[in-house]
Amino acid sequence: MQKTAFCKMIKLFDIAYHIAKHEKPFAYYPSLVKLEKRHGVDLEDAYINPKQARVFTQYLAEQIHLEVSKQVLSSRYISVLVDGSTDRSTTEKEVLYVKYLHKDGVPRMAFVGTEDIESATADGILHCIRSLLISKGIPNWTDHLVGFGADGASVNFGCRQGIYTKLKMDMPWLIGIHCLAHRLELACKNAFQGTYFNQEIDGFPSFYTSFYRGSGKRRRELDRLAELLDESVLTPTRVDGTRWVDHRRRALKALETNIPAVIAYLSEVGSDQRQDIKKADAARVRGWLKKVKSNEFLLHIGLYMDVLGELSHLSLQFQKDSISLPTAVEAIETSKEVLKDMAKGDGPKLRAVKVECRCGSYRGVALSDTYADAEERLKSSREPLIHDIVACLDERYQTDTILMAMCKLDPKHWPEDLTEYGNEEVLLLLEHFKEILKKNGCDVENVMAEWTRLKKVINRSYRGLKWEELWSQILRVWSEEFPNILHIIENIQVMPMSTSKVERAFSLLNRVKTDWRINLNTATVKDLMMISLEGPEEEDAAAGCVESAVKKWFRSGKKARWPHIKPYGKRQQVRPATSPMADSDTDDDNDELVLFDK
């Protein structure tokens, strides 16, 4: 391919990459090419149609996949993270991620692919996992797999027929971890179930959300009333129906912000002056108004927001891709201590609510019950609630001996005397992972001797570093000095703590495969997701995957590529001007001139 044609094809591939990276339809491709031409960019006239955009996307995704596979294969140990759901076409799909150790010593997660599954059973999902890993160039994945991460569905962790159980039959060293963020959601659900917070406070956002949803008139009236009161109105949201704890906090924040405007509007709706409101709806509104315009309701909201604020912070930590086991354990312990303090003292939101409620009103709304009685009822429910939350956290985050042994290697909690510290835990980990350690070249006989020397090095030079930074530096700088003990550290680093990134991949899947693109095949969806999730930034793509993709595209065609040849266009039939002097005996073949669009 000539250099000029090659440069032009790079620009066309770059436009296709832009479309895939920004999750746009292939139909945008011809119009973007025409826009670039209007801006004076010199582009080819061939290969300018949506079908070619899809072909270009395939070659681009292949180059990105090759780079990702190269990085994954460089890691001696990996973990897999899986989750299943249905897409817009109600097709069951499984998304697979791999957690591996990058050459810089930092654990990373890579998108492997998505696959249609014939049945959502353990065997069906296992077949999907195997086919995805093998198709991505990881045929001997069982010799490197040390962790399995998923949500707590029985198909994943069932004690008899779950995926983890079946994998562990062939890989007895495998560690299965139920997603930390999912466990927190379940712990909160159990702790709040049947309490005043669940029955009364959670019920009101659900009520007024359904009251305004589907009625533009009611929402306009609320906005006008809020404007008169000089209040802001946040969009009402339901407390239930989403994945993480933070959605509860956002729903309560919207409720607390909207209270003056909502109470004023519902007071009007609940009166007998509105003829357009059904009597049953008006009665429900009056019942809720009686509860909301009380010190008890508002004080409980204050406590609820403080509690959910801490739990939301914990949930957001669990959703980070870089979360490690020691960091997660420390975050759980810190949150439990903060919650226990709330059982004895007031949090910031509750203190602010109490200051206003003592005056008999809240943000201009007169309250019905007495403050002293409401505060006594709050005290009677506060300690049981905090106790139940802490108990549910303890129950959901029970840690087995192997994971606890891993946490012992965090220097943050090391004592002054390190002579015997950690020896028992390292021996336990060594025995548990012995088989896979040997498969990957670890000399298990030298592990304990290296551990003794490594403790001295860390205690002297790296004691104050956080877990992630510490082991990143150790793996980069001391890999030749401690080649065997670092096998165990690599195992710990790739433990799959959270599947939140897999959940985000499903959100991307639904953005890519919309109702208007419901016929996209699985291979195309996989390519688009690969570019969006793993592709470099557009500024770096042209010098990397785009150039390689163009070269491969040019070489791999079944027929010769002709990017510099203009495609055929519509034929134009042009008749010559008739002349009275024209020879009437001219041949019919010369009656008209046929031109082709160039």
Largest sheet: 5 strands, mixed
- How would you describe the shape? globular
Supply the helix-strand structural class. alpha/beta
Tell me what portion of residues adopts beta-strand conformation. 5-15%
CA distance, first residue to last residue: 21 Å
* Low-confidence region ranges: 579-598
Helix content: 55-70%
Total number of domains: 4
**What is the count of β-strands?**
9
Widest sheet, order of strands: 3-2-1-4-5
Rounded Rg:
32 Å
Mean pLDDT score: 86
Number of helical regions: 25
Quick recap:
The chain has 598 residues and is an alpha/beta fold. Helix content is 57%, strand content 9%.
Please explain how this structure is put together.
The chain is an alpha/beta fold and 598 residues long. It folds into 4 domains: 3-70 and 519-555; 75-179 and 497-501, 2-Layer Sandwich (Nucleotidyltransferase, domain 5), CATH 3.30.420; 184-396, no CATH class; 404-493, no CATH class. Helices cover 57% and strands 9% of the residues. It has helices at residues 3-21, 28-38, 50-73, 122-135, 154-157, 163-170, 180-192, 196-201, 203-212, 216-228, 246-270, 279-292, 295-318, 325-344, 348-357, 371-396, 401-407, 423-432, 434-439, 447-461, 467-477, 485-493, 500-512, 522-534, 538-555, and strands spanning 78-86, 92-101, 107-116, 145-150, 175-178, 361-362, 365-366, 571-574, 593-596. It has a 5-stranded mixed β-sheet, sandwiched between helices. β2 (92-101) and β3 form a beta hairpin. α1 crosses α2 (28-38), α7 packs antiparallel against α13 (295-318) and α17 crosses α18 (423-432).
